[in-house]
Every structure is written in structure tokens, then in C-alpha cells.
Amino acid sequence: MLFESPTGRRVDVFECPKPRQFLNFPPTSFDFFLPESPATSMGSYCNSSSVSVAAHTFAAEIPDFLTEEECKLIVHLAKLKGLQKSQILPTEDYEEAMEMIEISQMDIFNLLDHNQDGQLQLKEVLTHTRLGNGRWMTPENIREMYTAVKADPDGNGVLSLEEFKQLNIRDFHKYMGSQKVKMSDLVRNSQHTWLYQGEGAHQVMRAIRQRVMRLTRLPPEIVEHSEPLQVVRYDQGGHYHAHMDSGPVFPETACSHTKLVANESAPFETSCRYVTVLFYLNNVTGGGETVFPIADNRTYEEMSLIQNDIDLRDTRKNCDKGNLRVKPQQGTAVFWYNYLSDGEGWVGELDDFALHGGCLVTQGTKWIANNWINVDPNRRRQQQFQQEMERFAGSEAGPGAGAPGEWTVDKAYSGVHLEL
Known about the structure:
It is an enzyme of class 1 (oxidoreductase). Residues 225-375 form the Fe2OG dioxygenase domain. It is found in: Endoplasmic reticulum membrane. InterPro entries: EF-hand-dom_pair, EF_Hand_1_Ca_BS, EF_hand_dom, Oxoglu/Fe-dep_dioxygenase_dom, P4HA-like, Pro_4_hyd_alph, Pro_4_hyd_alph_FE2OG_OXY. By secondary structure, the protein is an alpha+beta fold. It has two domains: 22-85 and 187-413, Sandwich (Jelly Rolls); 94-185, EF-hand (Recoverin, domain 1, Orthogonal Bundle), CATH 1.10.238. It has eleven helices and 25 strands. The strands form eight sheets. Strands 3-4-20-14-25-10-9-5 form an eight-stranded antiparallel sheet, covered by helices on one side. The chain has a five-stranded antiparallel sheet with strand order 8-11-23-16-19, with no helix packed on it. It is globular and about 65 Å long. The two termini are 25 Å apart.
């Protein structure tokens, strides 16, 4: 199944995507480069009928990237490791935590007032509701909240600055904290675990990592020191509303993978996931597609995600309205970039068109895995991180070194062999 639009249009590309200019990393004791998005060579996984590519947002669908046996092994290892809820229900401490945030009422209004017209539209409030208690808010939820706290006297769904000034923000926090929330009400309803892929890991895990290196054409130094493989299970009723795999990086933002080495303090932190490679580990009986709501749009405008009470980010209700959808097929990989080029040979701004989500699983169970490749948009920090990891690896592999050190988690599974 290739990418499909609501009108039934299929985006089929029966030739390999052509590599474009490469990004050069400043020379150090090691040299490597980053391919400019969109750019890749599918290597041994690109043949006359194996790749489909989305047009505006670069996303490649690659059937048979994993074998059935490999998919089953990953699921088995994940079960052995044990899975945890990907998002927990809001705690009773929500109201207290919100009161500890030091932000004025005027600052809140200005944050929400996206177009700075002095009024808060429903969709402006909705785009920031993830600042709340983890519940996915709908237009209906916002209206109910307004009614409960008497926030909208004229009932037109719009809050003027004067109306907002009359409100007690604590009333909103109390309302949110009082609401009974189910797992289906959250941004994400799934379970997950992490599987180690480094030296000493199961041979299949190592083979998949090598395959990802060839697919992305990224240097081993980058891929080897990225996040472990995340394995996710969605039961019937599971979903993940549309989101970005990484966050924007501002001067005051640190990347999770380089922050300790850089020894810099920053008020914000993000994952800096340059590339996503998603694997489908089983065939799903019903639902569970991966949707890219705005992939083929000519322009991006955050407010356009919500029109006439239809929120394109809502994967429980509106997956059929997204521009591109990928049906889960066991062994298929989907590969995309989360950042653009900065035009100067490195990682640039977040690619808003990479917005994606997991559609509601209507029947059966969905298993996927994610390989994220981490690159710091700050060249100096990434370079420092790579040098430190090389030094660490060298000390681990010094004279008399035996098995990998204790940091190689999941090494207990390295010798697992199963009849699948």
C-alpha cells in the first residue's frame, strides 16, 4: 500500500530518489557529512518498485525493509524487556504544579493570541492546549470549560482581552484538575520500551542499525550514538495525535543527547531528532495508519490546522482528512527528515510539514518501532559530543578490555535465538 490521499490519489515513484548536495561537517579528527533533506540513496533497498515518495514533505515508504522473522524478534524482545505506558494520566498534583509556573495573565493572553488581534479564537487556544494536563482538547472541551468557569459571557466562543482580564486563571486550573480523564483522552495512548542496538546487542538489532546507516547515508559516528530503538504497542483504541518528533531549537534550547557533554545550562530541552525511520512490525486488522496531515500543502500556517471545528491533528476523528496516509504493512519502513537545511551546510529549522500521527487502531493491535537519528543543530556541540564519545569508546576498548561495559543495556538479550 503506497501513500494515499482522501481522494484516493496514490503517490507512486518507481525510481530511486536522487541524492542532492551533501552537507559537510567541519574537519576534525574524523570527517563526516549529513545528506541535505530531501536526499537519500536507498542503497541496496532501492529497486525498480520498492520506494514510494511523498511530494512536498520528503517521506519514503520502503516495503520489505525488515523480514517477518526480524519483526517477530523485535516484538519478542520488547515483551521480554517489558513495556510501560507512553503517557500517564494526569496526577492530582496538576493544580499545584500549574500554580508554581511564574507567568502573568497578560503573558498568557499574548502567548495564546497567535495573530495578535486582541481576541482569543477557539483554535488559538486549542493550538496551545498541550501546555495543560496532558489531555487532548477539542473545541467541545474548550466550550465546556468556558461555560464551567463563566469565561465567555456572550457565548460567541471568542475571549476579548477585557473578558480575559476578568478571569481567575486558578479557576481554569481547578477545572482541568477536576476532570476525569481516560487514556483515550490523552495526546498518546500506547505502551513502549527501548532496545539497545550498540556493540554487544543481538545480531539482528545490530544488522538493522547497519541497514539504517546505508538507508540514511549518515556516518556511523552519528547513527551509533543516537537513541536506542523504541518499540511501541497500540492496542485497539490506541492512537497518537499529530505531533513533531523533534522540537525547534532556539539559542536557549539544549539537545538531550549533547547537553551533558556541552556542560551548558538551558531552560528548555528537546530531542533533536534529525531523521525518523519508522518500522511496521505487524499487519494491523483495522486502522493504525501513519498520517501526515499537511504533507502536500504549498504553505504552512499553524492556525489552518483547525477549520470549522475540524482539527487535522486529531487522529481519533480526522485521519481521513489528512493529506497522506501510510497503511501498516509488516516489514515496511517509512523514512523522513524532521529538519530543513540551514543553507550553510548544516541542520536548519524544523520542517513543519513533517507533522504526523498514528491513526486510531479500530481493530486488533499495532506494533511499530522507531529509529531516531540525533544531530544537534549547533555544529560545535555536535562536534564536541562526537569527540567525547570517541574518547569514551576508546577508553572502553583499551588494553585488556573484554565485553562491553555496563552501559550497554539489554546485553542480556544479545544471545537470544528463537524459532519464529
